[in-house]
Design a protein that fits this description.
This protein is of the alpha/beta class. The chain is built from 14 helices and 13 strands. Strands 2-8-7-6-5-3-4 form a seven-stranded mixed beta sheet, with helices on both faces. A four-stranded antiparallel beta sheet has the order 9-10-13-12, covered by helices on one side. Bound molecules: pyridoxal-5'-phosphate.
Length: about 375
Amino acid sequence: MIKFSKVLQNIKTYEAGKPIELVVREFGISPEDVVKLASNENPIGTSPSVKKALITNADKAHLYPDDSMFELKDALALKYDVKENNIIIGAGSDQVLEFISRAVLDENSAVLMSAVTFAMYEIYAKQMGAKIVRTMSYEHKYAEFIEAYEMHKPKIVYICTPNNPTGDATSKVEVIKIIKAIGSEAIVVVDGAYMEYASAKDKAYSISPNDILEFPNVIYLGTFSKAYGLGGMRVGYGIAQKELIEQLYKMRPPFNISTLSLAAAIEASKDETFIKKSILLHQSEIGRYETFAKENGFAYIDSYTNFITYMFPEDMDSTYIADTLLKKGVIIRNLASYGLNAIRITIGTEKQNDTFFRHFAEVIA
Ligand SMILES: *Cc1c(COP(=O)(O)O)cnc(C)c1O
């Protein structure tokens, strides 16, 4: 019998959004009729200039990428007004989360996060045998964070803003207040995976890496997977003072993103038109989801992201709704595993959203 590390006993494998292929196979629905609104991907796809860059770079597939990733760091440094040595690139910001966890956690440490937040924080912490501490609320509340911090002295404090899977956000003022009250021996992670959407909605919720770079124990995380439409390329980044970045670099495998991913991200970071177009579509569609909830008598969380979370009353069961939608070819995220009678829906194109509303109305009828 293989003796696996005992930390594995506590870990539930991350459940990713169901792929289109699965719905086609299991329910015999043709791929064109499947609507995937489960993983917060960009509904308009990938920028045309990125596609061109992928084709141009196809004949470099046999070459290892530039391991310094200088050109991408340069683009990010320009975008955020920081230095190249403030930046580490990961295979998704997920990989940067893994570097952070491995760099500071062991079986004697704790991590602190909100009651309902990104599932990978817990999984990476458990891989290191660390203890998980959660606040009472899914919102990031100053008093709750500071009380839990004082009691447990966690090595990592997670602030996911905007928060996934709830969609709410924490204002810049509030985030900085929390950071200032946390001791400098804990790493504070500000996960801005959806920051492009929050910034477009309300400046008070817009946090740029530069707003928090003065704190030596704070790292900002960003990703190309959401607004930039590159979920399939796996590119994310962390931005912090160079001493913190240098330590994280010790955890990084060489060539941790591919030649094509690197080319795609470099091109994507330059295409602001595509981001603007994505945000505009999002803004014109999300109101329909709010109206739909009101008309049908259930609550939603005001969203600062590219998804919306519907919170159901007791007589509506999120698991039944998610399963029934799936059989109709509509993939959304059931939040029952997070302890919520709720579903999370990525805002799609106008046509995808029409399909969602039509099927959802049938399910609850
Ligand atoms: C999607 C997401 C990430 C990371 O995504 P990658 O594809 O690994 O870059 C990180 N944090 C949150 C909150 C997310 O929703």
